[in-house]
User: Fold these one by one.
Assistant:
Number 1:
Amino acid sequence: MTSSSVPSVKLLINGEFVESRSTEWRNVVNPATQEVLARVPFATAEEMDAAVASAKEAFKTWRKTPIGARSRIFFKYQQLIRENIKELAALLTAEQGKTLPDAEGDVFRGLEVVEHATSIGNLQMGELANNVANGVDTYTLMQPLGVCAGITPFNFPAMIPLWMFPMAIATGNTFVLKPSEQDPLVTMRLVELALEAGVPKGVLNVIHGGVDAVNLICDHPDIKAVSFVGSTKVGTHVYNRATQNGKRAQCMMGAKNHAIVLPDANKQQTLNNLLGASFGAAGQRCMALPVVILVGEAQTWLPDLIERTKTLKINGGTEPGTDIGPVISCAALDRVNSLIASGIEEGAKLELDGRNPSVPGYQDGNFVGPTIFSNVTAQMSVYREEIFGPVLCVMQAASLSEAIEIINANPNGNGTALFTRSGAAARHFQEEIDVGQVGINVPIPVPVPLFSFSGSRASKLGDLGPYGKQVVTFYTQTKTITQRWFDEDDDVGAVNTTITLK
């Protein structure tokens, strides 16, 4: 297929989908087949500036739009997403590789945030204290910031954009979105549906690109806040550059999540949960479970874990019954394979080798099967690096306290889990573990949108997380007003030169 016959991904500027004039393009490739699905532009500086200018102009009227009108747009939007979820999932699978059921889950978890945005009338309420002094009231307003921006990763091209722009727009801001250049198609379809739901022109804009687009978002004086999800390297760059330019920033970054298995845990349920969390989405989740610590007698479960893992089916994401699809790119496949090789070289025991699997009909796909290492130590690359592939490292500990020490010594603090029947052990774990999101018999403890994503330590920069209550605070400026109204016949009294109100 020639480049001229491949559809081009458009920019969204001031409510119009426009063809970029860029001379730099990248192919969007199906990772299961290497088929070129589309080509995406790296927007020019002029195009990116136009998107920000459009958002700035739209903010003048959008910020004054009644909160009920904003809310009704998101009621319509959630309906449109539900009606088109099969189409959205198919697009996502084609460009990202995850299985169709997992792709639907990706869309659905984003849909939950859209549903949360419909409640903005209750979420964006200020506070009032009546008569704080003689005839004086104090109250707060939660007002929108202006133009906000989001930079999203390849692994959740539906969910993470939906973490960002619905809540930003619902709170009265306008938005510039930069989706991953690796898989922007489902994101753009979601943007089309947002316009169909009634998002006015200029309120939502989309640019595409790489480093230049990221830096423009960090530097542009008209952008007031930046949301980011992605790698630690890029997230640290975004946070430092954006905050140095006076912007608010929230950056959700790398992870190395651990699960502890105590001997009293329900064995079959635990093994099923471990497999799903470790190998689902081919391990390409920031909340994946790449490390399991077996405590005491639970160490005898390793053979059962290996045998059950062998039953997982590797195939194209559209094939029925598939458990593990391809990783996103040839470069990602090479990186995963090199880290597996490093584990062998550094002394870990390769219990199950998933390299170079045979996948009939998908000989050119970026496939790596589930891989398990035992005898892993904290000094090994397979432990220290975020692999972002279906590779599970199994460690051992003599006690719960020893396992907690291993986790707390890791610099990342995104998510963790404990499998046990003991309430006392669970309470001890949740109190002593230094990780933002904790699961008890739940392997991927991503909170529902009533709460905020709360990764910690090296996994997060910025005080406030995406969605939930925290993001309403992130996307708004609190204005505190103290007022007094005098009756016409009040005795004003003498001049007061103190700082107190009487």
Number 2:
Amino acid sequence: MPGSVPNSLNGWWCNQRDEYAFLGFGYEVTACQSRAKMTAEFRDIRQRFRGRYVRIYGACDRRGFYNDVVEAAWTAGVGVHSLIWFGFQGDNSWRRRKDELFSVLFSNPKAKFVTRVVQFGSEPLFDNAINAFELASEVRRAKKSLKQIGVPVTVSDLAYSYQRGYNSGAREVLAEVDTVHAHILPFFSARASTARNSWPLVVEDLNWFIKNSGGKKVYFSQSGWPSETSSGVRANSPRAVANVQNEKDYYTLLDGRCSYFKNVPGGGVGWFAHIYSDQHEVGYGIYNRRGGLKFPFSPRTSC
């Protein structure tokens, strides 16, 4: 990062066509990590894995927390895909989170220089957290507001969620988002078996987004294969295998399709590994609960 905050975003971000292959990690913030801890882990993402971005997952409702995210990201030299978390309670706490996030985006001079995009929810359509027509309206209003500081807006969700509600408002959501943030989780398919055999499932969802998004840039904002199952991670196929080898094989599969992702219409596809550590979410971390790497991980960021 420069020694002082620039005056303009002109020329600041890379062209989206260069944002393909491995981008970084999903980063769970429910633990409300300190600024120091986030700085250290964001640096690890940047320096050890060459990650360019951190995709926020979950929510910390400590006032000013996103200021800490911004400062940690600035110090570490990474961008942030920020998130308005809806949660699973069916309440309106997301409105308070939106207001808090927007307040920081407009008041912290560094915020727009690390915030690549605001995600309006993580699977809000799948969870029925908000009416799809209302979500489309919220995205539209957010785009109008954040256009002042050059921050785009999206919704992070599954192809299935859009397909299920395509004629009930989901089409309007897809039309409103600036970029497509797709959840690609083939482990949960009813046709899942092993990670090595999951490419047809990945392409099926990707092709749906390509066909229906009007040529928009696609990111795999949440993508991975669990190394173990838990109460919140259960397969829908009796043949789906969850272990460390399959988690490794899934990322090897994505990494091996670098040239394919580079040439996807709309500017290529960039993907996030979900998630940084099993201390955040059991089964999906690159690091295990003891802080050790589960397997060697050095995916390509270009090809």
Number 3:
Amino acid sequence: MGDRKKRAAVCCVIAAVLLEEGNKRKKRPRERWSKDWFLQRSVLPSDCHLLNELKEGGEISDFSNYLRMDANIFQVLLRKVAPLIEKQNTVMRAAIPSHVRLIATLRFLATGRSYEDLKFSMRVSPQALGDIIIETCIAIQTALRDFIQIPQSEEDWKKVAHEFQEKWQFPHCLGAVDGKHVQIKKPANSGSQYFNYKGTFSVVLMAVVDANYEILMADVGKNGRISDGGVIKNTSFYNSLIKGELNLPPPECLPGSNKTAPYVFISDEAFQLTDNFMKPYALSVLNNERRIYNYRLSRARRVVENFFGILVSRFAVLGKPINLRPTKVNAIVLACCYLHNFLRRHSSGYVNNQHTTSQSSQGIGLDGHVYGMRSSSSSASSTTAKVHRDTFCSYFNNEGKVEWQDDI
């Protein structure tokens, strides 16, 4: 009996020792919420303080170059976005202010710097920046949702067509269409899904652009393996076009002519020729009249090429592979598109001659070609679509001729 009591006592001692050891292992030094130098962002030098110095010192051009907009426009944008990104302070720590969140996002879009790099100038951890930038990009889309809209009525579409006629001498044109491959790092376990014909990984930005370089429709997210002609067919815009739900104006006589033609979108050879989609003649069937048509179409279509050039020059994040998941890349690209239209309307210096080719009568496309940009991968075109293209061709060589086209 005595031995049992002794063994029980020993077991109790051993259990107590093990419990104490376990408690010691569980006790760890208390982790900090944040590094001390992050918490000093309100008093120590940061991007926000630099912007204040630029603003107070009258360095308008430097401020604009830093955020791609001047101080007044930044305040307009902040008022629109702040309610969507503002956070409440807690008893544990102060929230990152909405203006800091917006500045960090705009600086990321303007430069494409990594989160690890931005943390030193913004005094915000890269983990927090990863959440802040995507959340703010989505908020920008919401706040500026009215800045990208497809025309809703025949009269609105005719206004777009009138501007193409006045600026680019292409009547009945409702928009120039093209796709841009936005490079990304290969997503994990994606195989060749995002691998494109250029030998890189990408998602496609499909855009319809008006005569003023403004976006009427933007669709992003289709993987780069799909051709531009295939991407457009998988957009809600194209589905509405095919179903006749876009309220396009009915065919009318071309200006100064008795030739009747539909209102159309213009594209390069990667797209399918349809009743409302015009593209160039193939190289194999060219004659002088068709060369003229190809030139006139290419000259008007270059607005979409110029738009892509403006977008990349203003938002350098699009000019290098983005090392984020495709869903996050989509949010970034769309935010750039909404900001483009917002700045196009509010900032007179947003677009200049360095970003666009001249609108003079003798300009040619950015790629130096006026026809035959890419070989077509689309299916056979309808007979009526070919007739409509021939109508435009005849018009450009007769009633709609401009005096300088033969020289080009």
